[in-house]
Amino acid sequence: MQPKYKRVLLKLSGESLMGEQNYGIDQKRLSEYAAQIKQGVALGTQIGIVIGGGNIFRGLSGAAQGTDRVTGDQMGMLATVINSLALSSALEAIQVKVKVLTAIRMEPIGEFYSKKKAVEALEAGYVTIFSAGTGNPYFTTDTGSSLRAIEIEADVMLKGTRVDGIYTADPEKDPTATKYDSITFDEIYNKGLKIMDLTATTMCKENNVPIYVFDMDSVGNLNKVLRGENIGTYVYKG
Question: Per-10-residue mean pLDDT for the chain, 238 residues long?
């Protein structure tokens, strides 16, 4: 069966890597993610990945506690590199070809990012992990993932979360919240729904990159999305 998407950018949150823990990286969750990504590669989809760093350090919360914002964001970027290396190692352990590209020079930890290098790696069958955000402070990993999705000309940006899509309200707080199967970027703005930061969603809208929000923590869901099953919420320009 042909996958619905030829090339995707998968955005994973750092917090999701904590699994049942309060901090750091849960090996069980990491292994589940790696296995799902391997299945996606076997389908024939080229997969680029951006992981957040919130399970280790958040620049914004660090700034609130007295850390200089620029320094805090740089610490957050390094947290994303740690997560990227962890996922890379988990993928290599199950014989998946993988490359880590960094937005800040730090060879030999990873190769310095360029679009040409990223696309060549994807076309050669490597899962390609983009770490260190955009390399600049004041930009979130949401914005970093939007930027990379646009640059690598991904068919869609997949936002793997712990909820199964976008709701009228927070489903964890409001039991009457209902899920959207699809929604336009403009509706998200007008209804004040929060899926990513405004810079990230605006970049996707302006460059016509749709976003698909789904529950990544349920094993097998990534494969379902890549095959075209409607299990989340599709965000499009309209």
Answer: 94 93 94 98 98 86 78 94 98 98 97 98 98 96 97 98 91 90 96 91 97 96 97 95
Sorted by sequence, the CB contacts under 8 Å of residue 74 that are 6+ apart come out as 59, 137
**At 95, which CATH number?**
3.40.1160.10
Q: Whole-angstrom Cα distance, residue 225 to residue 193?
A: 22
Q: Is the dihedral of CA 98, 46, 210, 222 positive or negative?
A: negative
Please give the tally of structural domains in the chain: 2
The number of angstroms, rounded, from the C-alpha of 181 to the middle of its chain's C-alpha atoms is 20
pTM of the model: 0.95
Which one-letter DSSP state was computed for residue 17? G
Q: Which structural domain, as residue segments, surrounds residue 94?
A: 20-137
Residues 110 and 193 in one domain: no
